[in-house]
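explain this:
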Amino acid sequence: LKKVKTDIEEAAPPAPQAEIIEADLYKRSYFGPDVPTLELECWEEELSEAQLQAYKHAGDEYNNIQNKLDVMVKDTGGQVVYNGNQFTAYQLLGKQPVLKDLERQSADIIRSRSRSLS
């Protein structure tokens, strides 16, 4: 069965468009500046409450670890050998009683995670 075409067709209402607050257009070309091969539109959105909490938690965790490392360096008479944007290198001197505590804590964490996987 074929649908008979009528001369008068009803026009479908246009789909509602999402409001773009502030869009930037990024173009990247592999053939030259006048021939865009990739065009992206993007805009910034506010972070959700969950995202803000995740960033706060990550920052708190980083600061906690950094403080523990600083205490460990101070307790062992060590020093910071390198402090860059991506990582920090420490030199620990003398006996390392703190390392035994870290080793024990790491073993406890590994055991608890392996139990939860079983």
Notes: The two ends are 61 Å apart (CA to CA).
